[in-house]
Design a protein that fits this description.
Blueprint lengths: L1 E2 L18 E6 L9 E6 L3 E2 L10 E9 L2 E5 L4 E6 L4 E4 L6 E4 L3 E8 L1 H12 L15 E2 L4 H12 L8 H18 L17 H12 L4 E2 L2 H7 L4 H12 L3 H19 L4 H7 L5 H12 L3 H6 L2
Parallel strand pairs: 1-12
Antiparallel strand pairs: 2-3, 3-10, 4-9, 5-8, 5-10, 6-7, 6-9, 8-11
Helix pairs in contact: 1-3, 2-3, 3-6, 5-6
């Protein structure tokens, strides 16, 4: 699948292992995703009470499975918080955390650079007074029934080998995730201006949709789409979803599949040519995407007509 190049990726994020933890796999680090993710295993648990975790970027740690994680304070190692089943912890950049897990556990770490979060706060919330305090809160362990399904979907798409995620999709998901964190889990939260609560005006929606469909073989970067209607990147992601009920990448996939259906009905082009015409260089990937949206293969769909 072809994609236009997007500038401004932050490559300062890197894997920093903690004692007892093993990195199973990661996604987005080399691809320049706005929110890379890594899956970590601690087969015998872990203990950072001797040397606290401290990273130069924000980290959301989601408990995928396994035992309890406790936040402790030295020197007494008294427990101050525990991570509930399905919960997550939010560690702001450069903050010391002492964490202990006495049983095997698996965690997913979602990484956000200072620049990415600061840009989201400035563009969408109207700015904050201190970069270091954007996601800082006295309480680190959190629970959020609305956020957890989005984390699960992000993780599944990041490591999906049958239908690999694109930069457009993952950056869009990352933007919506960080906006949720800022609105519900940040001391920097401010009331969103009325002008940023709603969707795109009809003329703006038509303009960006036309740009996305002018050549279905190319993914137009989100920042380019936002610039077309003169709004910020994060505001665009939110407003587009309000207007259409879906994120930009989901809208584009459905539009590609719909156009493929038209070609399958009205032409005799081989399936590989149809796939290429709607942006899929790999016919097998196109077939998987088509089946997931229409419940059948492209050949079966054509056979109905």
């Amino acid at each position: 699948m072809r994609a236009a190049t997007e500038e401004g990726s932050d490559r300062s994020i890197r894997l920093i292992p903690s004692p007892g933890m093993i990195a199973l796999k990661n996604a987005g680090l080399s691809a320049g995703w706005a929110m890379p993710v890594a899956l970590w295993d601690a087969p015998e648990g872990f203990d950072t009470s001797a040397r606290p975790d401290n990273r130069p970027f924000h980290t959301l740690g989601w408990r995928v499975s396994g035992g309890c994680v406790r936040r402790v304070l030295p020197p007494t190692l008294q427990t101050v918080e525990e991570l509930t089943a399905g919960g997550f912890f939010l560690q702001s950049a450069s903050r010391n955390l002492w964490l202990v897990a006495s049983e095997p556990i698996r965690l997913a770490h979602f990484y956000m650079s200072e620049a990415f979060v600061q840009t989201a706060a400035t563009e969408y919330l109207g700015g904050v007074s201190s970069q270091a305090e954007i996601l800082h809160n006295e309480r680190v362990m959190r629970s959020d029934p609305q956020l957890v399904p989005e984390l699960d979907a992000y993780l599944r798409r990041a490591f999906d080998q049958e239908e690999p995620a694109t930069r457009l999709e993952m950056d869009s998901r990352a933007s919506l995730l960080v906006l949720h964190l800022l609105k519900h889990h940040s001391v920097a939260w401010r009331k969103i201006p009325d002008s940023k609560r709603g969707g795109l005006p009809p003329r703006h929606l038509r303009r960006v949709c036309d740009a996305m469909t002018s050549d279905l073989r190319v993914e137009v970067p989100l920042r380019t789409l936002a610039a077309l209607v003169d709004i910020s990147y994060h505001h665009f992601c939110h407003a587009f979803k309000v207007s259409t009920g879906t994120a930009p990448y989901q809208w584009l996939v459905e539009t590609r599949v719909a156009h493929a259906c038209e070609l399958l009905r009205t032409t005799g082009h081989p399936v590989a040519d149809v796939a290429a015409a709607v942006g899929y260089d790999d016919p097998s990937q196109f077939t998987r995407v088509f089946r997931s949206r229409r419940g059948m293969t492209p050949c079966a769909y054509r056979g109905q007509w």
